[in-house]
Specification:
155 residues; alpha+beta; Trna Endonuclease, Chain: A, domain 1; two-stranded antiparallel ribbon
Length: 155
Protein backbone atom coordinates (compact mmCIF):
# COMPACT_ATOMS: atom_id res chain seq x y z
CA UNK A 1 0.00 0.00 0.00
CA UNK A 2 1.19 3.48 -0.87
CA UNK A 3 1.86 5.97 1.91
CA UNK A 4 -0.41 8.70 0.52
CA UNK A 5 1.20 11.28 2.80
CA UNK A 6 4.60 10.86 1.11
CA UNK A 7 4.19 12.63 -2.24
CA UNK A 8 7.59 11.47 -3.51
CA UNK A 9 6.68 7.81 -3.06
CA UNK A 10 3.32 8.38 -4.76
CA UNK A 11 5.07 10.09 -7.68
CA UNK A 12 7.61 7.25 -8.03
CA UNK A 13 4.82 4.68 -7.89
CA UNK A 14 2.83 6.62 -10.51
CA UNK A 15 5.77 6.99 -12.89
CA UNK A 16 6.59 3.29 -12.62
CA UNK A 17 2.96 2.29 -13.14
CA UNK A 18 2.83 4.49 -16.26
CA UNK A 19 6.07 3.01 -17.61
CA UNK A 20 4.56 -0.48 -17.42
CA UNK A 21 1.33 0.68 -19.10
CA UNK A 22 3.23 2.36 -21.93
CA UNK A 23 5.48 -0.65 -22.47
CA UNK A 24 2.42 -2.94 -22.63
CA UNK A 25 1.19 -0.68 -25.45
CA UNK A 26 4.49 -1.15 -27.32
CA UNK A 27 5.94 2.25 -26.46
CA UNK A 28 9.59 2.74 -25.51
CA UNK A 29 10.29 4.81 -22.39
CA UNK A 30 13.33 6.74 -21.15
CA UNK A 31 13.83 8.73 -17.97
CA UNK A 32 15.62 12.08 -18.10
CA UNK A 33 18.58 12.26 -15.74
CA UNK A 34 17.59 15.72 -14.49
CA UNK A 35 14.06 16.75 -13.50
CA UNK A 36 13.26 19.94 -15.41
CA UNK A 37 9.51 19.43 -15.74
CA UNK A 38 9.74 16.26 -17.83
CA UNK A 39 9.40 12.91 -16.06
CA UNK A 40 9.51 10.61 -19.11
CA UNK A 41 10.48 10.65 -22.75
CA UNK A 42 8.44 8.19 -24.78
CA UNK A 43 9.28 7.19 -28.29
CA UNK A 44 8.68 4.63 -30.96
CA UNK A 45 8.70 4.13 -34.68
CA UNK A 46 5.52 5.05 -36.51
CA UNK A 47 4.07 2.99 -39.32
CA UNK A 48 6.23 4.87 -41.83
CA UNK A 49 9.39 3.99 -39.82
CA UNK A 50 9.87 7.58 -38.69
CA UNK A 51 10.92 8.03 -35.06
CA UNK A 52 8.29 9.72 -32.91
CA UNK A 53 8.95 11.11 -29.43
CA UNK A 54 6.93 12.93 -26.80
CA UNK A 55 7.71 14.23 -23.33
CA UNK A 56 5.50 13.50 -20.33
CA UNK A 57 4.95 15.18 -16.98
CA UNK A 58 3.34 12.80 -14.47
CA UNK A 59 0.88 13.94 -11.81
CA UNK A 60 0.16 10.93 -9.61
CA UNK A 61 -2.27 10.62 -6.74
CA UNK A 62 -3.24 7.80 -4.42
CA UNK A 63 -6.79 9.14 -4.71
CA UNK A 64 -7.99 11.85 -7.14
CA UNK A 65 -6.23 15.12 -7.83
CA UNK A 66 -6.11 17.56 -10.73
CA UNK A 67 -4.02 20.66 -11.21
CA UNK A 68 -2.77 23.16 -13.73
CA UNK A 69 0.47 25.09 -13.50
CA UNK A 70 1.47 27.79 -15.99
CA UNK A 71 5.11 26.70 -15.83
CA UNK A 72 4.24 23.74 -18.10
CA UNK A 73 2.92 26.01 -20.85
CA UNK A 74 6.47 26.71 -22.09
CA UNK A 75 7.32 23.05 -22.80
CA UNK A 76 6.11 22.52 -26.36
CA UNK A 77 4.45 19.16 -26.97
CA UNK A 78 4.32 18.27 -23.27
CA UNK A 79 1.79 15.60 -22.39
CA UNK A 80 0.53 15.85 -18.82
CA UNK A 81 -0.59 12.48 -17.47
CA UNK A 82 -2.76 12.48 -14.36
CA UNK A 83 -2.84 9.13 -12.58
CA UNK A 84 -5.56 8.60 -10.01
CA UNK A 85 -6.36 5.84 -7.50
CA UNK A 86 -2.90 4.28 -7.28
CA UNK A 87 -3.95 2.39 -4.16
CA UNK A 88 -6.86 0.62 -5.80
CA UNK A 89 -7.69 0.78 -9.50
CA UNK A 90 -5.27 3.18 -11.27
CA UNK A 91 -6.60 5.27 -14.10
CA UNK A 92 -4.69 7.68 -16.35
CA UNK A 93 -5.75 10.79 -18.21
CA UNK A 94 -3.41 12.23 -20.85
CA UNK A 95 -3.77 15.86 -21.92
CA UNK A 96 -1.71 18.57 -23.54
CA UNK A 97 -1.23 21.79 -21.59
CA UNK A 98 -3.66 23.47 -23.97
CA UNK A 99 -6.32 20.85 -23.17
CA UNK A 100 -5.74 21.25 -19.42
CA UNK A 101 -6.01 25.04 -19.77
CA UNK A 102 -9.21 24.68 -21.78
CA UNK A 103 -10.76 22.64 -18.96
CA UNK A 104 -9.56 25.15 -16.36
CA UNK A 105 -11.09 27.99 -18.35
CA UNK A 106 -14.39 26.12 -18.85
CA UNK A 107 -14.72 25.37 -15.14
CA UNK A 108 -13.74 28.93 -14.21
CA UNK A 109 -10.45 28.30 -12.44
CA UNK A 110 -8.62 30.98 -14.44
CA UNK A 111 -10.80 33.61 -12.75
CA UNK A 112 -9.79 32.63 -9.21
CA UNK A 113 -7.26 34.17 -6.79
CA UNK A 114 -5.17 30.98 -7.03
CA UNK A 115 -4.79 31.46 -10.78
CA UNK A 116 -3.22 34.89 -10.21
CA UNK A 117 -0.21 32.89 -8.98
CA UNK A 118 -0.38 30.72 -12.11
CA UNK A 119 -1.51 27.52 -10.44
CA UNK A 120 -4.76 25.83 -9.45
CA UNK A 121 -5.37 22.41 -7.96
CA UNK A 122 -8.09 20.32 -6.41
CA UNK A 123 -8.08 17.05 -4.50
CA UNK A 124 -11.85 16.79 -4.81
CA UNK A 125 -12.63 16.81 -8.53
CA UNK A 126 -16.19 17.81 -9.32
CA UNK A 127 -18.61 15.77 -11.43
CA UNK A 128 -18.16 18.40 -14.16
CA UNK A 129 -14.37 17.96 -14.15
CA UNK A 130 -14.68 14.17 -14.24
CA UNK A 131 -17.07 14.44 -17.18
CA UNK A 132 -14.64 16.71 -19.05
CA UNK A 133 -11.75 14.33 -18.36
CA UNK A 134 -13.57 11.20 -19.53
CA UNK A 135 -12.50 11.68 -23.18
CA UNK A 136 -8.83 11.74 -22.08
CA UNK A 137 -8.97 8.47 -20.12
CA UNK A 138 -6.26 6.16 -21.40
CA UNK A 139 -5.92 2.43 -21.96
CA UNK A 140 -3.50 0.26 -23.97
CA UNK A 141 -5.35 0.81 -27.23
CA UNK A 142 -5.53 4.58 -26.74
CA UNK A 143 -1.81 4.77 -25.89
CA UNK A 144 -0.99 2.88 -29.08
CA UNK A 145 -3.28 5.10 -31.11
CA UNK A 146 -1.87 8.27 -29.55
CA UNK A 147 1.60 7.23 -30.63
CA UNK A 148 0.42 5.54 -33.85
CA UNK A 149 2.32 2.38 -32.93
CA UNK A 150 3.20 -0.19 -35.55
CA UNK A 151 1.93 -3.49 -34.11
CA UNK A 152 3.82 -6.62 -34.99
CA UNK A 153 1.66 -9.61 -35.81
CA UNK A 154 3.06 -12.79 -34.31
CA UNK A 155 1.75 -16.06 -35.72
Amino acid sequence: MINSKDKQIVEIEGVNWLIVELMKAGIEVARPIRDRGVDLVVYNERKNDELFAKVIQVKASSEESFSIDQKYEKTKGLLIVYIWNLESNPIAYALSYEEVFSIAREIGWVKTKSWEKGIYSTSTPSKELKKLLKQYEMNEEKWSKLFDIKKEIVS
